[in-house]
C-alpha cells in the first residue's frame, strides 16, 4: 500500500524568484541612508534633502537627534494645507523658534507606508511636538542593518558572541540529510569555499541524472540522490507528467533548494527578493555538510520512495534527517516516516519533521512519533508593507514582495472590482473565470483559497487586470504569507478584507491604490504561532504532547532555482537566487540546522538528548517578554508545544531528558500496540506482557508532560529522569505552575548533581481537583521548571498538559 505525502509549504506555486535589486524605498528608514532613496510626490523634496545633510548641531545647548514622527492620516484630509509636505512642515513650524526655517530640519516626508516625517529635534522640541494634535507617535531613528534569511539573527545566532554558532563551530563536521524535491546545486548557498572535506564516515554518492553530474556536488553539497520508483508506478501517466521534472537530484519546484539552504546554506551577501529583505543569507548551520535525497515529484512524495531514501541515508552516514513532508496523523505502525525514523534514531540520527499545515484544526498535527522532533511554525518580526489606500482616504494594511517603485504606475489609483456570481469560482480568480470587460485596467480583489496565491495573479494579468488585492477569508484570519507576484499585488487579512469589501459595497465607483513600503524589521510582535501551523492534541497518543516546538516558518527567504524566475517583471529582475516561502516546511529546516549545531558541539549526545535540549530551552515568551500569541489569544501548548526554539540556550541546556530506543518499545506496549504492530515499527519481536511486568508504572522520559484523566481516574504518578550535561557540581530546585483544576506535587524538590553525565530521577503526583464533569473534553496547562541555584542561564522547562475525557 502506498501513502502519498505532501511537502509542507504554505506558499503558492511561486513563479520565479526575483533578483537582488536595491530596496524599493526608504519609507520607514529601516535601511542605511547612504542609499539615496528620497521618494515624494513633491518636487522640492530632493532639493530639501540636499540642503539638509547637516551633522548634529546644538540648539540652545540642546543636542539634536533624528526622530520619525507618525501622524494620523485623517489630519491631512481635514487640514487646509495644499500638500502633504506643507502639512508636515507645519508641525515643525509650531515646534521650532520663529527665526528658524522648518525645512532645514526635515529629512524625509513620508506618505506611503506611514503618514509622517523624519526630522532633527532637540529634547525640548520633541516634548512640544508630541503634544500637538494628530501626532500618533514619535520614535528615535535607529541604525538597522540589512538582513534576508534574517531568521538566524531573529534567533540570536551571531559569529561575534559566544553562542551556538561559535560553540559548535557553525555546525562543522555534521551532515544534514534533506528529504525533499532535490536541489539546485549552482545556488550560491551551496558554494564550498572554506568548507572542510566530508567526514571520514561519509559513504554517500553524487548520483548522476538529467542535467546533474557527479561534479555538481562539492564539499558543502556532499551527496545527492533521487528516488522515483514509487512515484513512477503510482502515477497514472508518468511519462506525460514528467515534462517539467528532472529525472535526477536536480530540483524542478524549488522547495528542496529552499529547505536545504535554510538548514545549512553558507553566507551569501547581497541576497534579496525583488530588493525586499536585502542582506546576508545564511542557513542555521552554515558550516554543516548537506546531502540531498529527492523523494518528492510533481504529484507528491510516496512512502516507498521516502523509506528508500531514509534507508540509504542511514547507510550514507547522515547525522540529522530533515523532512518537510507529511500529511494528516497516522497510527505509528501505518506511518512510513515514523517507521523509517525509528531506525534512524537507533543509529544515532536526529529526525526532524514538519508538523503540517492543517492548523488551526484541532488534532491535525502530523509526524507524531515520540522519537521524532515535530516542528510547528511561528512568525518573524519582519514585515513587507503594501498598504491599500481606498478612495475614501482610509487605509487597509497588507503585505507584498512586489517591487512597486521599480515599475511605472505600480501605485496608480484605479477602479476596484470583485467578480462574484455563479459557480465559476471567479471570486477565487481561477484562470479563465474573469471577464476581460469587467477587470481590464482595474484592481481585482481575489479571495484566498482553493488555487495557488501566485496563480491568482496570473489569472488577473491574463484577463487584463492591472493589479490584485488578495483577500484572506475567515479560515485564514490575519495570516500574512507574502509572495512575489507577476503584477502589482498585496495580501490583506480577513478583518481588513471585510473593511475593503464594505467600502466597495457602499460606494458607487470604488477606487484604490497600493502603496509599497519595502522592508520593516523589529516593529511587529513576534514570534506568534502561524495560523496554518498544525495543532495538537496528539490524535493517536495523548500521553505525548505534539508539536514539540515552533520555529520560524512565515515569509522565510532562502535559495531558489535560477530557472524559476517570475514573468511579467522587468528583465533585470528575473534572475533568481532567492525567494520567500511559508509553511511548517520552512520551520522544519530551522530546527534541523539547530540540531546540527548541537550535534557538532556534543557529538556523543543521542537524538533524544538533542531534542530535549531544544525543547527544555525553548522560549515561552516573545521578544517583548510577553506570552507567545496565537491570533488574538495566548498560544496554548497544543499550538506552541514547549515554545519557540532558542539555539543559544539549546547548545548549553544544563540538564537533558535522555531516552534509549528500548524505552520507546516499552512506550508502544503501554499504548496497547500488538506484537506485530510493534515489530512493524521497531523490527523487534517483543512480549508486551513481560515488558510491562518488568516496568510497572512506566512513563516515557519525555521532555514535556501530558496527563490524561479518563472517567473515574483522579490521580497519576509520572517519573522523569534528568542527566547533568552542565557544570560538574550543580544544584537544581523545582518550580511548578499547576494547571487549573489540578494539584501537582514533585519529589524530591531539589536535585544535587555531583558530576557530569550523572542521572537523577524525580516523581510527579498529578491530582485532579475538578468537581464537575462536562460531556466535552476539557484541557488545562501549566509548567514545571528546574532552576539552577548557581546561575540564571540553566532553566530546564517542561510544559504540562492535562486532559479530562
TrEMBL record:
Keywords: Glycoprotein, Hydrolase, Protease, Secreted, Serine protease, Signal. The keyword Secreted applies. Residues 66-147 form the Inhibitor I9 domain. The keyword Signal applies. It comes from the Eukaryota. One of its GO terms (molecular function) is serine-type endopeptidase activity. InterPro entries: PA_dom_sf (IPR046450), PA_domain (IPR003137), Peptidase_S8/S53_dom (IPR000209), Peptidase_S8/S53_dom_sf (IPR036852), Peptidase_S8_Ser-AS (IPR023828), Peptidase_S8_subtilisin-rel (IPR015500), Peptidases_S8_3 (IPR034197), S8pro/Inhibitor_I9 (IPR010259). It is found in: Secreted. The active site is at 180 (charge relay system), 255 (charge relay system), 585 (charge relay system). CDD domains: PA_subtilisin_like, Peptidases_S8_3. Residues 414-499 form the PA domain. It holds the Pfam family PA. GO terms for cellular component: extracellular region. Its main location: secreted. Belongs to the peptidase S8 family. This is STOMATAL DENSITY AND DISTRIBUTION 1.
